[in-house]
Design goal:
Heat Shock Protein 90, 10% strand, alpha+beta, 11 helices, five-stranded mixed β-sheet, extended, 378 residues
C-alpha cells in the first residue's frame, strides 16, 4: 500500500469551500478504510507471532529435556535445534512485518490529522461555530500535540532500539546453546549476533540524532548540517552538495534548532523526489542567515528556432495538431514542476515554525528551491 499524498493547502473562493470540505470528508473515509485494512493485517501478523512464539517455546522445552537426558537420540536433538532456529527466524520475520505495518499506520494517522486540520480551517472560513470554538482552544491543542509527540517517541523507541535489543537477546540464547554443545554452527550464529548488535547501535545513534543532535549544541549549525547532508546523501544514494559562506555565529538556541529542523526536513523531502542532486547552502551575513535547500534537475531543452530542422518539419504540420502538441508539452511541463516541488505537507510545518520564530520563508523556482532567512540577533 503506497503512502497517500496529502492535499495542498486550500486556495479557493468561498463558493468552493463546501465542495472542498466534501472532498476532505471523502478523504477521511478513505484513510479510515485503509487504516482498517492495516489493523486487520496487524491482527493476522500478531496472531502468527503468537503462534510461532508458542511453538518456539514448545520446541525449546523439548530441546532442554533432551539435552538433560543422557540417553537422548543425537539425531533427534539436532533436528529439534534446527527447528528452534527456524521458529526463531520465522518469529523475527513476522515481527519485522509488524514494524512495517505500524509504520504505515503512523503515516496514515498523521495524514488523517492533517486532513482534519485543513477541514477545521475551512469550517472556520465558512462560519462553522463548532470549528471556531475548537480553534479557540489552542492551549489544549498544544498540550495534546506534546502528548502525541511523547507517544511517537515511545513508539519509535519500542520499534527501534527496544526491538533490536529483544532480537539480540533471542540470538544470544541461540548462540549460548550452540556453544555449550560445541556445535559448529555457533560461529555463523555469533556473526549473525554481531550484525544484530551493530544494527542496534546504528539504529540507536540515528534515533538519538533525529531527536536532538548533540553536535548541534557542541559545534553549531554548520558542522551539524554538513554531517546530516552527508548521512542523508549516503542513505539515499543521491549527491548532496553542502556549502557554507561567511563567518558562522551562534544563533538563539530556539532559532538554531528551528533552522536545523527546517533545512533537514526540506532536504529529506527533496531527496524523496529522487532528483539527480540537492544543494544545501548557508550564507552568513552581518544581520541574518540565509539557508537555501534546492533540488537540481536537468534543464529543459530549448524550443526549436525558426532555422532548426524541427521548425522546418513543423511548417508542414497542421496548425491544429501543432496546437495540441504545444498544449501537451505545456501540461507535461506543469506536471514535472509539481512533481519536483516541495510537497505541501512538508512545507506546512516548516512555514509554521518559521512564522512562530520571526523567520522569512520563500519558495522559488516553482517550489524547487526553499529559502529560509533567520535573524542573527533577537
Amino acid at each position: 500500500m503506497s503512502e497517500p499524498e496529502p492535499p495542498p493547502p486550500p486556495q479557493a473562493s468561498a463558493a468552493d469551500l463546501p465542495e472542498l470540505r466534501a472532498e476532505l470528508a471523502a478523504d477521511v473515509a478513505r484513510i479510515q478504510g485503509e487504516d482498517g485494512e492495516i489493523s486487520s493485517l496487524m491482527e493476522q501478523v500478531l496472531a502468527e507471532i503468537e503462534r510461532h512464539e508458542a511453538r518456539r517455546a514448545q520446541v525449546e522445552a523439548e530441546v532442554r529435556r533432551l539435552e538433560s537426558d543422557p540417553g537422548a537420540d543425537p539425531a533427534e536433538l539436532t533436528r529439534l535445534r534446527d527447528s528452534l532456529l527456524n521458529q526463531t527466524r520465522r518469529e523475527l520475520l513476522f515481527d519485522a512485518q509488524r514494524q512495517v505495518l505500524e509504520g504505515k499506520q503512523r503515516v496514515l494517522t498523521r495524514f488523517l490529522q492533517r486532513v482534519r486540520e485543513i477541514d477545521a480551517s475551512l469550517a472556520v472560513m465558512t462560519g462553522d461555530s463548532s470549528a471556531r470554538s475548537g480553534a479557540a482552544n489552542q492551549p489544549a491543542l498544544a498540550l495534546r500535540s506534546q502528548e502525541e509527540l511523547r507517544r511517537d517517541i515511545v513508539r519509535q523507541l519500542h520499534d527501534g532500539p527496544a526491538q533490536s535489543l529483544a532480537n539480540i537477546g533471542l540470538q544470544a540464547e541461540i548462540v549460548e546453546r550452540l556453544v555449550e554443545k560445541s556445535d559448529p554452527r555457533a560461529v555463523e550464529e555469533i556473526e549473525s549476533l554481531r550484525r544484530l548488535v551493530q544494527q542496534a547501535l546504528d539504529t540507536t545513534k540515528e534515533f538519538i540524532f533525529e531527536i536532538r543532535p548533540m553536535v548541534l549544541d557542541d559545534l553549531g549549525l554548520g558542522p551539524t548540517l554538513r554531517r546530516t547532508a552527508a548521512d542523508r546523501a549516503r542513505r539515499a544514494g543521491i549527491s548532496v552538495e553542502f556549502d557554507a559562506r561567511g563567518v558562522e555565529v551562534r544563533l538563539d538556541p530556539d532559532v538554531e534548532s528551528a533552522v536545523y529542523r527546517s533545512v533537514d526536513e526540506a532536504l529529506a523531502a527533496y531527496l524523496e523526489l529522487r532528483p539527480p542532486a540537492v544543494l544545501v547552502r548557508l550564507d552568513w551575513g552581518a544581520q541574518e542567515l540565509v539557508s537555501t535547500v534546492g533540488a537540481s534537475w536537468p534543464r529543459e531543452l530549448p524550443e526549436p528556432t525558426a532555422s532548426s530542422p524541427a521548425a522546418s518539419e513543423a511548417a508542414d504540420t497542421p496548425p491544429a495538431l501543432l496546437a495540441m502538441m504545444a498544449e501537451k508539452r505545456s501540461e507535461q511541463r506543469e506536471a514535472d514542476m509539481r512533481s519536483r516541488a516541495l510537497p505541501a505537507d512538508k512545507f506546512e510545518p516548516i512555514s509554521i515554525r518559521a512564522n512562530a520564530l520571526g523567520m522569512r520563508l520563500t519558495m522559488r523556482e516553482d517550489g524547487q528551491v526553499m529559502e529560509l532567512v533567520a535573524p542573527l540577533h533577537r
